[in-house]
Amino acid sequence: xxxxxxxxxxxxxxxxxxxLVAVVAVAWxxxxxxxxxxxKLIEQLDDSSDKIRLSAALNLTKLGDPRAIRGLAKAxxxxxxxxxxxxxxxxxxxxxxxxxxxxxRKVAVAALTNAQSNDPSEFVKAQAERALGTxxxxxxxxxxxxxxxxxxxxxxxxxxxxTDPKYPKLMSRTAERSLQKVAPNMATTWPTxxxxxxxxxxxxxxxxxxxxxxNTLDVTKTGGSAKVSCKVSMxxxxxxxxxxxxxxxxxxxxxxxxxxxxxxxAGEDCVAAVVEDLITKKIVPTIKAKVGP
Length: 293
Prior knowledge:
Elements: H1 12-44, H2 50-63, H3 68-78, H4 82-95, H5 102-118, H6 122-134, E1 149-153, E2 157-158, H7 166-182, E3 186-187, H8 197-203, E4 206-222, E5 225-238, E6 244-257, H9 260-291
Parallel strand pairs: 1-3, 1-4, 2-4
Antiparallel strand pairs: 4-5, 5-6
């Protein structure tokens, strides 16, 4: 209504109502903008640029919208870039939880399980394995039984001059995963921790010990690309005595982009590839030959 000075007077209740309507309108617009943004990012997962696809995967993970799960699962399974696949695996590990639609969870677990076993990049495999563990879908390691084989995988180490602590962990994780893949009958865990010689004998299980060292990790840059080369030595011994009977060496080289991120990923791929090759082609066959038919 009008006051004496000609100024419009509005009741407090009316102001509150107007404010409330404004707040509701802003909230609705924010939700609409969020929804539009998620849809746009999901579409960008199919973009021809791997940089745009990577950015889309990272931003979908930050937004935390469950509608992104199927898009990220598709990217993990089909994308040509290991960086995008890695980001998709990380995203699925963060987006899938107890409230996730069962069908979406099934799709995510299937994509992560396939990546863990079959992705050509060891880094992507590791991210998929970590995501499966986060969402509670990791495959348990078998418990050794009569006539079985137990393999104790050491923490492993870097040679002097290599200070990054991620490589020993990567080597141990890759060794365990490779053993589970090519020799599922060989257990890498024991129900009570580390078994004694007596416990192994009581179960009729033969014990072995695998350790390794990253000896060299070199980077050579040429223009816009870089070459990352690595050398790993491993040895095989009895367990728990740790009497060595096999000394193995392997090396590899990976060509990648010159950015720090590309070089870091290439270093991980190089080291993991050597460890997987040594486990698959040398260590497992040696253990089988040692055990006999």
